[in-house]
Specification:
CATH class of the domain at 42-157: Mainly Alpha
Radius of gyration: 37 Å
Oligomer: single chain
Helix content: 40-55%
Largest sheet: none
Shape: elongated
Number of strands: 0
Mean pLDDT: 77
Structural class: mainly alpha
Number of helices: 8
Length: 204
């Protein structure tokens, strides 16, 4: 008995199989690899430009009425300062590099060297920034990450522990804290009499 050759339909039904059960053969490797997933920066994760604008706006609301920090900004309008801080923070956290293109390397300590940044100024800066961060209502991990950086940056800017004024207009404001000048020396007391000789009852 002869077995007839397979019909075209039979051939197409079995083509590409590796066994009689009809299992599908693996597809040929074309050498193509899937594109890696894009890694979001911190800038993107917390909302990008709009989030940093909100942060800086809230911060400078506090600075505007602060008798210690406001004299650090000689400009009558705080708008340019807001823009500089926004651009800097955006660049630091992975956003646009506009700050460096416009102003060069940040060099934060050098830019603050002309100002009297003492612990009082640092603490006031952090107090206003704390209010601003809280207003953002970020997820806990993002809030901790942002606040950790802001604290370290504020402490790094301290360049003196002298309790005098701050900024170019410091001369118009009375210095707070400890007195800057030393107290005058107390009047000299007369020398004490030498102890008596108990054996002779007279001074030595």
């Amino acid at each position: 008995m002869t077995i007839p050759p397979p019909t075209p339909s039979d051939a197409s039904r079995h083509e590409g199989t590796s066994d009689s059960a009809g299992a599908q053969a693996p597809a040929a490797d074309t050498g193509e690899r899937p594109e890696p997933a894009a890694v979001l920066s911190f800038y993107d994760e917390i909302g990008g430009h709009e989030t940093f604008v909100r942060l800086v706006e809230a911060f400078y609301r506090g600075v505007a009425d602060d008798e210690v920090l406001r004299p650090m900004y000689p400009e009558e309008d705080l708008g340019p300062a807001k823009e500089r801080l926004t651009l800097f923070l955006e660049q630091y956290w992975g956003g646009p590099t506009t700050y460096s293109r416009q102003r060069g390397h940040p060099r934060l300590r050098m830019r603050h060297a002309a100002f009297h940044v003492d612990p009082e100024a640092r603490d006031r800066w952090l107090a206003h920034m704390r209010v601003a961060v809280d207003e953002l209502q970020l997820p806990a991990l993002h809030e901790v990450t942002l606040w950790d950086y802001l604290q370290r940056a504020a402490f790094a800017m301290v360049n003196t522990f002298e309790p005098s004024g701050i900024g170019p207009s410091a001369g118009t404001r009375a210095a707070g804290g400890l007195p800057v000048t030393a107290a005058p020396p107390a009047a000299a007391s007369p020398p004490a009499a030498p102890p008596a000789d108990p054996a002779r009852g007279t001074a030595r």
